[in-house]
Amino acid sequence: MVAVVWLVVRGRPRRTEPLAASVQSLLDAARRRAVIAVVFSGAVIVALFLAGSFLQSLAGLPIALAPALGGAAGLLLYSATPPRAVVLASGAAREASLTPRTPLSFVPPLGAGLLAAAVILQVAFLIFTGVTSSPDGSGRYRTIAFQAADSASASSPYPGWFYGVPLLVATVVLVAATFLALWRVSSTPALPQRERADVDAGWRRATNRIILAVGGAMLLLQFGGTALQSGSAMRNTYFEGVPPIWDVLGQTLAGAGLVLMIGSIVVLTLATLWAFTLPDAALAAGAPAGPRNAETAPAGLPR
Predict the structure, then answer these.
(1) Rounded Cα gap, residues 22 and 85, in angstroms
(2) pLDDT, tens digit, 9 for 90 and up, residues 133-183
(3) For 22-38, how does the pLDDT look when each residue is reduced to its tens digit (9 = 90+)?
(4) Could you give the CA distance from residue 190 to residue 303 in angstroms, rounded to a whole number?
(5) Beta strands 151-155 and 134-135: pairing type?
(6) In the 3-class helix/strand/coil scheme, how is the chain assigned residue by residue?
């Protein structure tokens, strides 16, 4: 992870000349908003992990839901923050772009595609664990059981319906929060000066990248945790006489789950880095610096 962060920091674009004070202050404010959203997501995750550790009667449910609910909380906090009004000097003309914007207008296609694939695969996997689960002594479907000849074995916790249904709901909440944050970015009024259209578009692209990274990191963490737990339960339950495919599947899921969890940490680290470097990223995502970019700075910048 340290190597990834070092490479990104080393390769990220840097300004060769200072910005106007008004533009710099507003980009810095946009950075603070993004950083607060990422940090708040992490704080909610930690709080839910602690709650799950102390409330044993919930059978670890808060821990399972922590990634999706934490990510949703941070994105909802960002969405709930109203944009700053763009102020123009007295008598200045206001120019507005007539190009319609949607929540997907400034979304990286690759990031959106990967996020959609992660959601689909995770939903399918949770349904699979529900179908293959068995009730425990309390009637909760959080166990996987095998039976062959005169032998039987069971292991828990296993996602099943007990964890799967809440996780499906939490996934829907996270997806909705991600879309709402994208809508928040697209619905923010554009800069009232057409010569600053590149800066406006760059800010939206840079912010949407952070939003997708937060949502994707939480999905990977949730998916990785459920896959790792499922694989471990399958391997613990397996015995001679059970079809070998279950042992192979258990080992595969355990390994894949570990990889996904590591990947989630990397993506979340990148999201944090992008949030801290949002001003540079916003300018890099717009047009290259040129004579037009040296004109009078806008009086306000939405974020």
Answers:
(1) 14
(2) 999 888 889 999 988 777 888 888 999 999 999 999 999 999 999 999 999
(3) 566 677 777 888 999 99
(4) 10
(5) unpaired
(6) CHHHHHHHHHHCCCCCCCCCHHHHHHHHHHHHHHHHHHHHHHHHHHHHHHHHHHCHHHCCHHHHHHHHHHHHHHHHHHHHCCCCCCCCCCCCCCCCCCCCCCCCCCCCHHHHHHHHHHHHHHHHHHHHHHHCCEECCCCCEEEEEEEECCEEEEECCCCHHHHHHHHHHHHHHHHHHHHHHHHHHHHCCCCCCHHHHHHHHHHHHHHHHHHHHHHHHHHHHHHHHHHHHHHHHHHHHCCECECCHHHHHHHHHHHHHHHHHHHHHHHHHHHHHHHHCHHHHHHHHCCCCCCHHHCCCCCCCCC
Bridge partners, residue 240, by sequence: 242
User: What tokens were used for 137?
Assistant: 């002594």
